[in-house]
Design a protein that fits this description.
Elements: E1 3-8, E2 36-40, E3 45-51, E4 55-62, H1 76-97, H2 103-106, H3 112-138, H4 146-152
Length: 153
């Protein structure tokens, strides 16, 4: 990946580059989607403000060495792609956990700790489904849907 730390940052945090901030809350129609501004204060830290529908702010610590030991310049749009690839797993997990097959959402409990326990059971079931799906893909076998997997259990 080339980045040791990548993440979004709020614009009111200490150390954020106010010079690269977009002034509008939403992307104006005249501004093309994917417009970005880059700020570099130190050679290792890159700040990026990128617009999709709303501005997204990234802060990354860049440490990239080639195989021969020389330093290379990392394009910042790769930062956005790497972030989306890493967040894709989180989004898939959240989507599966919040579907209609959730035990925590199906059963209402008065005690908070019982709700937390059911949430952890949901988390384990979704993780089991994801691992099962990856194992079946590796063996070139048909992958069941999430509903079929839950019925199997």
């Amino acid at each position: 990946m080339g980045f040791s730390h990548v993440g979004t940052i709020r614009k009111d945090r200490k150390g954020w580059y106010t010079t690269i901030e977009f002034t509008q809350k939403k992307r104006p129609k005249r501004m093309p989607r994917g417009t970005y501004r880059i700020g570099v204060d130190h050679p290792e830290v890159v700040a990026l403000s990128w617009t999709d529908n709303k501005p997204v702010r990234f802060l990354a610590e860049v440490k990239r060495r080639e195989r021969d030991g020389s330093l290379s310049v990392v394009p910042c749009l790769r930062l956005v792609r790497d972030y989306h690839e890493a967040m894709g797993g989180v989004d898939i997990h959240d989507r599966l956990r919040l579907q209609r097959y959730s035990i925590r959402r199906a059963i209402r409990m008065r005690k908070y700790y019982k709700t937390i326990f059911l949430g952890l059971v949901d988390l384990a079931l979704v993780n089991a489904f994801i691992v099962h799906k990856l194992a079946l893909k590796r063996l070139n076998k048909p992958v069941p849907t999430h509903a079929a997997f839950m019925r199997l259990l």
